[in-house]
Amino acid sequence: MCRQTVIELSVNNHPGVMSHICGLFARRAYNVEGIACMPVNGGQTSKIWLLVDADDRLDQMIKQVDKLEDVLIVERYDSGHPVFAKMAEFVQ
Amino acid sequence: MKMSGAEIIIKLLERQGVRTIAGIPGGANLPLYDALGQHGGIKHILTRHEQGAGFIAQGMARVSGKPAVFFATSGPGATNTLTAIADAKLDSIPVICITGQVPLSMIGTDAFQEVDTYGLSVPITKHNFLVRSAEDLLRVIPEAFRIAASGRPGPVVVDVPKDVQMAEIEFDQWPEPGVPDRTPELFAGEIEHAAAMINRAEKPILYLGGGVIQSDSASQAVAVAEKGAIPAAMTLMGLGSIPSGHPLNLGMLGMHAARYTNLALEECDLLIAVGVRFDDRATGKVSEFCPNAKVIHMDIDPSELDKIKTAHASVRGDVADVLKALLPHIERQNRTEWNSRIEALKGAHPMLVPGADDPTSPYGVILKAAELAGDQAIVCTDVGQHQMRTAQVYPFTRPRHWLTSGGLGTMGFGMPAALGAALAAPDKPVICFSGDGSIMMNIQDLATAMEYDIPVKIILTNNNALGLVRQQQDLFYGKRYVASNYGKCVDFMKIADGFGINTYDLGNCDDPEATLARALAAPGPALVHVPVSPDEPVYPMVAPGAANSQMIGGENHV
Ligand SMILES: Cc1ncc(C[n+]2csc(CCOP(=O)(O)OP(=O)(O)O)c2C)c(N)n1
């Protein structure tokens, strides 16, 4: 089993942000195992959580994500995040 | 104030200081063109292909260091710009492409000339926008300029639906023009650590890249080299950082470097990488690049640090700031032993230039043109053997006078980029070295050169082949020349003549040197035709994927 990490992003909320982020991972053949996204503060920004395998390219991926103009804050949760634990209940 | 979206765009571009825009109109950006015509402060260059418009903008941006703008309509207009945008991304060039789009209500319906410009441009831009209201333009246009020019520069696409261009809005105040963000703060500890490593090194080499040119820090790089007596090699994009005649100049490194350059790098004990990204054309097989060296990597883009090669010390910052901060900490040293070792390598493994004295040979024409054009000349190339030869032997003396497609390696770059360079620097001579394969990729913009009387001198070395591809087939594919020789000859003299360009044929004249001199001195655009053999390789060469120490050709047998 691969170790998994959760990346939490604060992003500007507009159509296209998701394609910037997912495209970045897809282009490097880096699979995103899980995604959750919710608007915050009336919808100007959103939070996105990405569940990814923690392979040795992860540091580089995080730097690339951080470079995106629409990404405001990047945080990393190496021991998981409850959002995916809760979501898991819906897909059992 | 009451204005349409299109008028707002044009006014905002004027306020950004934009004076020249290249492009092609169509249904979806006609409001923008109408506003451009009504408001008059900006000169428009009507190209014959949108890719040409993109490269003209690149030429302007590479020479001036400021973001340049180009226009295209929706659908095919937008898709035609993509290669020029991707090229700007890989070479970190600040250009802004403003495209027309079908009206908002029709987006997603497969309307006439609709294409998902936003989606297509996501992976090849630094950032992109699909503008959803005329009000948004007041924020988006200055943002586009800020983003294109901040930090590591890059291309920005702004896609503007036709109804947004036509919508009229009331507003009170113009936004401030977009300017680059302040450069990031340096960490004193990183600078001191790097300086200590440099001072301790016995055999250091500076490895200077496009970041030195972009940050206008060539003079600081020279100062650091001189104070520490540190020889300096350059990437293809870094040429011009150190004048070619400078005793510490090692020339270009990598795939087509002089032997002594790659051999010196083999021996160095410290590699000081400044504004470079360890591109494989520069490093060869990465694991065998500078095998004995510790690495210091300085770059404004943190994602470049440790991307390809893990550095022993990294310094994040604008390299102009970094070099400025570093200089006082660098000990004045002579490094006599190391520099005499380099002199010995230069003597034993010099750059051999066949035909250097013959202005009708592939190298000779470059050297002769350089001599005639003088050290103010801006030099552009297309992609191929002619490009690598120019990089090897042209005596570059200053930054922002060397324009080539480094990262993407785009044939068709040279001639339109030269047009942009001449538009940005009308007081300087502009030469473009091209090949018969490359010039065909944007030959239609010879008409643009003629129409606006842009005085670029195109020196076309014609081997009736895709020379660099043929050379790889020669070396690595058992001399099977598949699809790299043209069966029949095109008459480039007649073609250029048909485009209204003056022509000069070095293959068919009594005094080639005098003919070249006349071509370079004549007003207006000119095409100089130089027939050459397809069997003249560019040496040395490192096979793709091999270590830089494994060079083919260019040995000194004397
Ligand atoms: C748009 C594009 N297509 C294909 C290539 C691959 N390619 C690299 S060099 C080259 C040959 C260039 O031939 P030419 O312009 O005649 O220059 P020469 O090498 O003969 O000097 C080709 C086809 C490329 N770099 N760009």
From TrEMBL, chain A:
Residues 6-79 form the ACT domain. It holds the Pfam family ACT_AHAS_ss. Its EC number is 2.2.1.6. InterPro entries: Acetalactate_synth_ssu (IPR004789), ACT-like_dom_sf (IPR045865), ACT_dom (IPR002912), AHAS_ACT (IPR039557), AHAS_small-like_ACT (IPR054480). GO terms for cellular component: cytosol. GO terms for biological process: isoleucine biosynthetic process; L-valine biosynthetic process. It catalyses: 2 pyruvate + H(+) = (2S)-2-acetolactate + CO2. Keywords: Amino-acid biosynthesis, Branched-chain amino acid biosynthesis, Transferase. GO terms for molecular function: acetolactate synthase activity; acetolactate synthase regulator activity. Pathway: Amino-acid biosynthesis; L-isoleucine biosynthesis; L-isoleucine from 2-oxobutanoate: step 1/4; Amino-acid biosynthesis; L-valine biosynthesis; L-valine from pyruvate: step 1/4. Dimer of large and small chains. PANTHER family: ACETOLACTATE SYNTHASE ISOZYME 1 SMALL SUBUNIT (PTHR30239:SF4), ACETOLACTATE SYNTHASE SMALL SUBUNIT (PTHR30239). Belongs to the acetolactate synthase small subunit family. This is acetolactate synthase.
From TrEMBL, chain B:
Coiled coil: none annotated. Keywords: Amino-acid biosynthesis, Branched-chain amino acid biosynthesis, FAD, Flavoprotein, Magnesium, Metal-binding, Thiamine pyrophosphate, Transferase. Residues 3-118 form the Thiamine pyrophosphate enzyme N-terminal TPP-binding domain. Pfam families: TPP_enzyme_C, TPP_enzyme_M, TPP_enzyme_N. Pathway: Amino-acid biosynthesis; L-valine biosynthesis; L-valine from pyruvate: step 1/4; Amino-acid biosynthesis; L-isoleucine biosynthesis; L-isoleucine from 2-oxobutanoate: step 1/4. One of its GO terms (cellular component) is acetolactate synthase complex. GO terms for biological process: isoleucine biosynthetic process; L-valine biosynthetic process. Residues 382-530 form the Thiamine pyrophosphate enzyme TPP-binding domain. It catalyses: 2 pyruvate + H(+) = (2S)-2-acetolactate + CO2. It is an enzyme of class 2 (transferase). Residues 191-326 form the Thiamine pyrophosphate enzyme central domain. PANTHER family: ACETOLACTATE SYNTHASE ISOZYME 1 LARGE SUBUNIT, THIAMINE PYROPHOSPHATE ENZYMES. Belongs to the TPP enzyme family. This is Acetolactate synthase. It comes from Pseudodesulfovibrio hydrargyri.
